[in-house]
Amino acid sequence: MKSRKWVVISTAVCVLLGTSVIAFASNPIKLIINGNERYTETPPQIINGRVMVPLTTITEAFNKIVSYNANTKEVEIHEPKEKVISQLDNIEITGKESEDGIYENLQLITDQFSRKLDGYNVTNPTYAPEIISVDLNGDGKNEIAVILTTGYGTGVYISELRLREGDSGNEIKVEDALIAMKKQFTGAVTSKGIDMYINGHQTLLTNDKLNTEREHWFDEPFIGNIIHYHIENNILKASAAVQISPGEFIGELEIEYSYKNGIFQVGEATFSQDEE
């Protein structure tokens, strides 16, 4: 079992962490941090008339790092260190790991600039941010595309795109792919199967082409659990899987972007059916 340092709940601790911490006695003693109860491996205790709480519990709650030097008998509390989580040649992305299992405070760093990236990325190294340096708008200069993974799991993969000018780091606006697809796509469950309309064009998948029993189908086809940005032949694209049940995806929508008036705008979505 990892060792636990103890701290007396006091004004000094509140100042150190920059927020309020309240502990009160009951049976057992509860620890309340910013209005939320915090459960501890070792419960708070009253020692010599003072409420004692494991210091690690406090530091973890506020995304701090605590360490103890047995030789000098010093306890140190500090901010998590930034680390390089993805790299392409001279382009780096750094971030700080939070207790929620994500990298936040993302920074895009090159020899010319350092820019903050909005959002976060999961800490699983398999899904580290993808960096692509490519000319997407045809001006003869490479842009830097960063594809973040914000969620993954069984039947789930969510990515987000951040696009920057390669020489200055200035942000380039990109229309949201999922919002655009939802405007272009509608679908319904019918007696014949799944009836879909993409930009007014009908696609019918009959019952014999579907694997899941109807009793497990959603009320209507769904998009949003798998979103993937990618670049092919200097063209920015995005795809979204079409799902009719928790375990069955029937195909995907795909859109291509074009650069107009200083922004990457979505085109018309197309549907391709999964091969049986």
TrEMBL record:
Q: Where is the Copper amine oxidase-like N-terminal domain?
A: 33-87
Q: Which Pfam families match?
A: Cu_amine_oxidN1
Q: Which UniProt keywords apply?
A: Signal
Question: What start and end residues bound the annotated signal peptide?
Answer: 1-25
Task: Report whether Iron shows up as a keyword of the record.
Answer: no
Is Signal set as a keyword in this record? yes
Q: Which InterPro entries match?
A: Cu_amine_oxidase-like_N, Mao_N_sf
Name of the protein described by the UniProt record: Copper amine oxidase-like N-terminal domain-containing protein
Which species expresses this protein natively?
Paenibacillus antarcticus
